[in-house]
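lol ok so funny story. i was supposed to be doing the assay writeup but got distracted and ended up predicting the structure for this chain instead. priorities right. anyway since i did it might as well share w the group, maybe its usefull for someone
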Amino acid sequence: MTLKALVLCSDEKILRVLRRVLSDLEIGLEHCPDADSAIQRLTRQRFEALIVDCNDPSTAALVLKSARTAPCNKRAVAVAIIDGSTGVRSAFEMGAHFALYKPISTERAKASFRAARALMKRERRRNSRALDVTLGRVDRPTALRQLFDEEIGLIRRRQPDREIDFATR
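and the output, tada:
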């Protein structure tokens, strides 16, 4: 199953660059020309990334907010496409994890989406483990070990002689 990104953008040049870069990184792209269709898709489908053109900051903020309120896209990686009038700070305040400046070049976009792709994969693994637990596909001690392995990694590194076993608790 490939990673999926929802793109809210009306600029064809930007869309062309994103299609090329995302296909090279094996990320599927679904394009929405307007905010209403993007919000509908965000409430019905799961996406690992949301890419929003911030030409209209209020519309971009609305779409990013609706992604955070939709249970299936709460942890989607958000990328804001900004120009000189929209600052990076306002993009991050809207909820973006990454910001790309216009005009978008293939090289800059590829570098940014490599980093975003790593986050997308991590969130997908995290969500699939949580789904396995809620659907009862994994026994509880194994699931707890999987879910908390990243969080207790620091404890294990600090205390290598002590092993923490969730199965006995």
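The domain at 3-121 is CATH 3.40.50.2300 (Rossmann fold). Residues 110 and 162 are 42 Å apart (CA to CA).
back to the writeup now i swear
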